[in-house]
Amino acid sequence: MASPTTVRPEPPQQDVTAELTLVARALRAELGAARCVVYARRPDGGLARLAADGDPRECAHTSAAVPLLVEGEVAGVLEVERPAVDGRPPDDTAAERDATAAAPYAGLAETILGRERQANVGARQRRELAELGRTRELQRRLSAAVASGTEGDALVALLASMLGTGVALLDAALHPVSWSAPEGPATLHESSFLPGTARVRTALADLGPEHSTAVLPPDPDAGLMRRHLVAALVGEGEVSGYLDVVETGRRLGPADAAVAEYAAAVLALQSLSETRRAQAVVQARDDVLGELLRGSRTPDDLRRMAAHVGLEVERPHLLVRLPVADGRSARDGRAPASAVVADAVGVPVLAIAEPDAVVLLAGLPSGSAPEARVKAQLGAVLDRLGPLTGCRRAVVSAVCRRVEDYPAAHAECRDAEAIVAGFGGRPGVLDAADFRTLRLVVNGERTSVAVRFAETLLGPLRRNDAETGGDLTDTLRHYLACGAQVRATAKVLGVHENTIRYRLGRIEHVGGLDLRRFDALLAAQLALQVDDLARGGSA
């Protein structure tokens, strides 16, 4: 992998080649040699031919090779070649004579190479200065844009415009977050940027705080059709994403690498700042929701606090209590559970974690019968919530329309859940309002008393039904559900009104209930509710 600041050797100027060719020609003419060649030393230590005079097709042997020294270093070789005589290469005497004769010409070649080296150094310095000036100008423009509030997508688009090529912001998994490319002959698409192949991931594995940029050469097998300059976004010691600059036309240089690295650092800081702001907002909303449910401040204070975090408490809301099984963490389950519910009901959801439950606050959606729709949608996702909380149960409050409603709704949901849990934990979506009367006579610590009460009242009816095949228990249930109306009960059960009157008489006789008394009707209602909970099963 090449560094973006690698300096490549300069190719010789045309006039230098011509001058060295004249030197080789003059030496060949003086010696009558078959061929004279000037070689330059490459950075890797090998030799590259710069100039030559003579026929390369002629079978010749080197008779002399004089090193060319520039600033005390071997910069090349001046070589003299002679044809074989009777199939034998030149002898030592000829080689020594040729080397002595070639020495002045070697000095002239050294002068030419030295002058060329100085020219290259000067040109390289001028280019480096120009590149440094470009780097500073690009960084100045980028800094001015950031200071004026440019961030995210706009910053990526500005960088693409400044560099004149495609730029993409990728997340840590190499998925595109944003990309931009100026109009031009090279058409770029989202697929033009770094693919998430194993070879690309391996090439980027070393990027981090110590080394944040890399250049990836074209590699079709890795999905790289072009050269890529990659700068890592590093925040709090971890790589959170990448800035990918695609080479199109103009070769990317040190200025591009410096600006890309600077832009990546800015984007990383902006991302970290945005994450911290989001976390602060979440924490503030958590704090406000906790205060709202506890009712620990005045209504006016709660309204102001809620408005500060964007919570419209005067709009209709429902509380949803998701109990958490023993051994499960409400804190761990809060985020995924609230995401499931928000997706199901189609409205934003706030959540807090209590020791034994996740409590959600959901705004009622628009449209008809929103409460019923929310409960139906909750019922549809209980199987998804079960693995997160350990319970397939949700307790839903009455609608909260005022600040004062929230603490009462919270307490009602908590008490209803305690009652249900005390009877074994019936699964499903439960309406906390259905337990208002039951809350007056039972709580989660006195469920055994309630069960005995229900059995005392309903046991005789149930045993009579078992012995006679009758329907006294079911008739009582429907009679209460129909508001103690004979006609409505008969219609629901599909029997004659006199049949209902006969069964009610049997209920009074067998169960010892006077169904004309309100307290008897209330006792029967409570007994049936307790019986349903006790027989409802566990989550």
From TrEMBL:
It holds the Pfam family HTH_30. Residues 472-529 form the PucR C-terminal helix-turn-helix domain. This is Transcriptional regulator. It comes from Pseudonocardia halophobica.
